Amino acid sequence: MAVITTLADAVGDLVPDGSAVALEGFTHLIPTAAGHEIIRHGKRDLTLIRMTPDVVFDQMIGMGCARRLVFSWGGNPGVGSLHRLRDAVEHGWPHPLEIEEHSHAGMAARYVAGASGLPFGVLRGYAGTDLAAHTTVAGIRCPFTGEELTAVPALRPDVTVIHAQQADRQGNVGLWGISGVQREAVLAAATAIVTVEEIVDDLDRHHPNHVVLPSWIVTAVAPVPGGAHPSYAMGYSRRDNAFYTAWDRISRDRHTFRRWMEAFVIGTTNHAAYLAAIADPSRLEDAPDG
Amino acid sequence: MAVITTLADAVGDLVPDGSAVALEGFTHLIPTAAGHEIIRHGKRDLTLIRMTPDVVFDQMIGMGCARRLVFSWGGNPGVGSLHRLRDAVEHGWPHPLEIEEHSHAGMAARYVAGASGLPFGVLRGYAGTDLAAHTTVAGIRCPFTGEELTAVPALRPDVTVIHAQQADRQGNVGLWGISGVQREAVLAAATAIVTVEEIVDDLDRHHPNHVVLPSWIVTAVAPVPGGAHPSYAMGYSRRDNAFYTAWDRISRDRHTFRRWMEAFVIGTTNHAAYLAAIADPSRLEDAPDG
Amino acid sequence: MADPPSGDPGYTADEMMTVTAARHLYDGQVCFVGIGLPSEAANLARLSHAPDVVLIYESGTIGTRPTVLPLSIGDGELAEHADMVVGVPEVFAYWLQGGRIDVGFLSAAQIDRYGNLNTTVIGDYDHPTTRLPGAGGAPEIASAAGEVIVMLRHSPRAFVPAVDFVTSVGFGRHGEGRGGSPGSGPTVVITDLGTLAPDPVSHRLTLTATHPGVPVERVVAETGWDLEVADDLTTTEPPNPGELATLRQLKARTRQAHGTEG
Amino acid sequence: MADPPSGDPGYTADEMMTVTAARHLYDGQVCFVGIGLPSEAANLARLSHAPDVVLIYESGTIGTRPTVLPLSIGDGELAEHADMVVGVPEVFAYWLQGGRIDVGFLSAAQIDRYGNLNTTVIGDYDHPTTRLPGAGGAPEIASAAGEVIVMLRHSPRAFVPAVDFVTSVGFGRHGEGRGGSPGSGPTVVITDLGTLAPDPVSHRLTLTATHPGVPVERVVAETGWDLEVADDLTTTEPPNPGELATLRQLKARTRQAHGTEG
Fold first, then answer.
1. pTM summary value
2. CA C173 to CA C196: how far, in whole Å?
């Protein structure tokens, strides 16, 4: 049964230094608040996992939390590069970052294998690409047709963190809209932390593509309204497109980045304070377009 | 794009003698009307496929439509045996029936492989069972861990038939409640026929576990209210438990079975006539408990 | 159905069996439930001492709390009262094979001394005397669930020296063990006469308890192999009034819901 | 952004590119759409000559009809106007790999003469000059879709003799072919200057059309390899007023929806 707790306690107790942590979200429902809490706790040597690392991964990487990144597409969606990710890969700042890179189809198959209790997944993919030589895949032959396919190793994070719209008081989680790979990431992980917009008496189950994660597969639930900013939670918030654009400028320069992180993440005690701070123009002087 | 047509035309045009036909439904939404239409058309030499063959499969087998049965659990749910299936397997009546038998997990993995464009599926299963020696499975080794698992061949029916609650006028299909393996069975098949309770202007998408099959993956849609009888369509009909019990008695004896089928299936022109006939006690003299 | 214990104790042998099986489920456990006897016992547990037991049926109904017993594995009742409904491929891949089931609850037509179960055929596979329904979900429940509870009524036809077909593995044809299956296999077999459990070393099913009023000799006679009896054989605690009342109300509700039609 | 053709024809080179790409989609086709240029062209097709084109984005939005262009692959706009939303594993397994996509619509940072695409790195993989976002859905779209339409702006940096990294296979490093991939690979590459198509025998991308006002020499100069020109080179039909109006309205609606904030 999931414990309903604070995000600070959940991250403090359940995310050890050196662990492999998936923070999933596919443009929608990105667990930004949890990433910020990882930064505030000064977590180190993490293997960070996500199909689509974006701003919050740029922030964790730039703040030195990550030793390794497992991913399939790393960019600022709709804007361009992740400058902190690039700086880590291209110049080793703040320290070198190991890369474990797959395609989306491969990452999805890896999570599905992890959720299914299988050591590997099978797909048609990677053949002829240079990716095959730079990541862990293997050929596998169909025992019935002789056809050669590609196997990818199961992905089993130590901890998966996601953001959802609702949890009920028993810790059952409900989310809807674009659901990405979150369900598989939770089922593949040993520990699952879910931040939610709201704790409700009864989950509102009547949305298209409504996904339930029962309480007994979730370790901790923390209410964090707006916890996906600058991403969105369908039915609760809108995507802050301006922030994604602003991040491009904030993150280009190491010094500007550090000052921004100190002002808005390290310098705030929790996500509510962060949201208040970025909404306050007088605190935005270091972040020209924030 | 799906054509909206009659069930008689769909079965007549799209189910050739000798083809491999999956009629899926997991207790809920069983495509009985389509099975009856297959009987009325006198289809022969079919490979009939379903995880859970029940009454309508007993009927098709007893009427000599099937050359082969692919399945994982064949019984009269909540009642007992399928006497026509047993008679075919045990005594070759009306003619011998080949059996291709799997576990539920294996059949599900076979459909998933078919839907996914893969030649095989992988699972932990069959090890130590006698099933392994009596069906088509193969060992497969994880290229990363060396672990030995089981591969099952993909299942790709020529035709899949399902029953659903709704289709819209464009042929998009909506169903909800227990959804079984219907989506995978449709996606794995070359041709898909869907009978529906109702054609609606807009699918009612707000039910838990609402599943959509877009028009462009469906070949033909036929409105057949009550088409799942004696099974049910959540929101439209209730399970006719008495009929399942009655079937046990109707089907025990070859002669009683034949007379019942002639009276109620062969002797009715379509599903509406069948439903009217079984509701009319004066026609039930051959079926003591119908 | 077996006769009630002599002297009419106020409950039937089937009720004793169901109550005994229900007691083996603990609150908060996740249980993959077969239809019939297992479903009755699992719901009795949920309605008595284990309100937070999580019941999963292979129809994809997860965390379901039916108000009456389902007649089939896919009754609407199961879907209407479920925390969630998922497709059948998912229930087997993510929930069972994924290692999330504490207890699998199975029945069978035949069981042998090593807890192997047959639900496929009586007689030869290609020329069977009786064709049974087949495997269904059982083989993978038997291999993947953390432990397996088996319920079936005692008779020499059911408790056989060697099953005609190993549909689901207990400890293997010759008690050789689990062959690397993730779960620990059958931990208890509950019948209308008593309870059997596998010996930890030999894996042979051993009589560990008889139900009140059932002589050991009767259990031995109803078992098709030379049944071993535990040194510390106990007698099952009879059903208490609360258990009986809950079970009987459940069955009365079930008859009322389904019975008007059949 | 490239300059508009000389003489100000009343549309930009980017508009010509988008309109040309849109024309390659036919009504009723099922199209797996990348974000950016492909998304713009695919939605223009849907809003003009191909109202029943089925658009699928890798975020799991199937049959979506956004009223404005999405900024990201997972905008709420895509989910709200979709026939259905599925999980990401499913969109790749059942819908793309399952062989249900007629057309994959891709962009890239680099393309070579054999239609291979690079979205991974510029320079050496382990010591890149520029780390690009990576593969995303592209490799499997490139292999599984029935055909692939590529859109990118012409420049010698983009049209290179050999891509630094084969993220997605066209016809292979040396034009050796598709290596058994299910789809037939790139059928057309649409740029701001013209249209290239692979020669059926050599698989080398060949200039088949130039946009109005673009001299062949300019295309050749903007291509980093010795570009072959088709004997029957044509000139692209300029955007018609309907196409232009639809595209401009779409972009205006998009600016209005997103622009108030950014």
1. 0.97
2. 18
Q: Which of B288, C129, B33, C81 is closest to A205 using CA atoms?
A: C81
Contacts of A120 in chain B (CB under 8 A): 122, 142-145
The tokens describing B149, both together, are 């698992």
How many angstroms separate the CA of residue D187 from the nearest CA in chain A? Answer: 18
Residue holding tokens 């974006």? A54
| Dist CA A182 CA A217 (whole Å) | 13
The secondary structure of B9-44, three-state, reads HHHHHHCCCCCEEEECCECECCCHHHHHHHHHCCCC
Q: What is the complex's ipTM, to 2 decimals?
A: 0.96
Q: Which of D72, D130, D258 to mutate to test the interface with A (most CBs of A within 10 A)?
A: D72
Q: Tell me the three state secondary structure of residue A135.
A: coil
The residue among B240, B217, B277, B234 whose CA lies nearest residue B77 is B240
Domains located in chain D, CATH noted: 13-256 (3.40.1080.10)
B141 with B11, same domain?
no
Give chain D positions within 8 Å (CB) of B113. Answer: none
Report whether C163 contacts C228 (CB < 8 A).
Answer: no
Whether C58 is catalytic is yes
Whole-number Å distance between alpha carbons of B248 and B243: 9
Q: Are B82 and B56 in contact (CB under 8 A)?
A: no
**Any domain includes B271:** no
The shortest C-alpha distance from D44 to chain B (Å) reads: 21
Q: Which residue range(s) make up the domain with A145?
A: 122-152
Whether the ω angle into residue B94 lies within 30 degrees of 0, i.e. cis, is yes
What is the total count of domains within chain B? 2
Q: Is B161 left (phi over 0), alpha (psi -120 to 50) or beta?
A: beta
Tokens, residue B215: 């028009």
CB B74 within 8 A of CB C134: yes
Both tokens assigned to A219 = 């370790």
Query: Mapping DSSP to helix (H, G, I), strand (E, B) and coil, where does residue C19 land?
Result: helix
Give per-residue pLDDT as tens, A76-125.
Answer: 998 999 999 999 999 999 999 999 999 999 999 999 999 999 999 999 99
Q: Which residue(s) pair with A213 in the sheet? A: A173
Given a cut of 70, the residues of chain C with pLDDT beneath it are: 1-6, 260-262
Inter-CA distances, D4 with C208, D15, D38, D116, Å? 89, 9, 20, 27
